[in-house]
Design a protein that fits this description.
It is rod-shaped and about 135 Å long. By secondary structure, it is of the alpha+beta class. The relative contact order is 0.07. The protein contains 5 helices and 17 strands. The chain starts with 10 loop residues before the first strand and ends in a 13-residue tail after the last helix. It has a 6-stranded antiparallel sheet with strand order 6-11-7-8-9-10, with no helix packed on it. Strands 12, 13, 14, 15, 16 and 17 form a 6-stranded antiparallel sheet that branches. Among the domains are: about 45 residues; about 70 residues; about 80 residues, SH3 type barrels. β2 and β3 form a beta hairpin. The longest helix has 17 residues.
Amino acid sequence: LQGGQWVLGMPCRLMGSGEVVAFLGLDGSGVGTNMCRVRLLDGKLAAHASQYLLPMPTRPARQGDWAYAVDLKGEQAKLNGRRGLCGLTGILAGRSEQRGLWVMFETSDPASPPEMALLADGNLVALPGPPQGAPRTPWEARLAALPGVGGAPLALTDESVQEQRLALLSGPPEQDKDSASDAGSVDLSGSSDSEAGDGDAAESAERNIGGAGSSQRFVPTVGDFVTARTLDRGSAGPASGGGLRHGRVQCVQGHDTGATVTVRLLCEGTLTGEVAEFPAASLAAVSEDELVLNAVCGGCAAAEPEE
């Protein structure tokens, strides 16, 4: 209002619906009518009785404000009541040093580019409110969080999301539960076999532990490859200063390390194979791979044997 007069384009609150409209003047369709022409936010025109229009308080527009164009004359009168976004400042044509704001107006067709116009500061008003980014009161925060507030576009219900939520609440179908139970079950039928296999492996590992300084001595059994110390490199039998011979256990008499073991010595170099007896405590385990690596020629007793 200017001097008690309505200004073209001024924002008003429509009583009853609470909608914000822009006043565009009296409706001249009849004599003595109290109907007023208004512009809706979407740009369409409508008519409402003047007693239902409540002028809203305004303030001067600034950069970044959504503002209403008011009291424009001439060719720019068509912009009265339209809402636009205030942008960069500019110098008005024909008026030295009078600045204005470039305004980008909304269009009814979202596919059309916005309309730009340079308007004087006095022809732009904004609704009072906190600046962008200002803290909100608890009531304002709750109001902004309410569904339907803020002009968010409506969307159809996503049925797939509802089905997923329902599945989480009710759980899987009965057949899926049975499948899950079967997948989580454990077959115990082979437990005895696996335990027996583990026992054999442990027993074999225990027998193969040996050597000087070991806490568990090697206990030979029939068929094991062993290393034995002979009296000399030409005769069989145990002694402390003889050479090392390799052989295979043929017989074990007694128990543990106190047993007497019959070993068939292998042909190594110029030494021939023969049978000898050794105390079990004097024998050490040897693998077949080690025997292959230590094998030498029977003629020269130095080179690797020919294949």
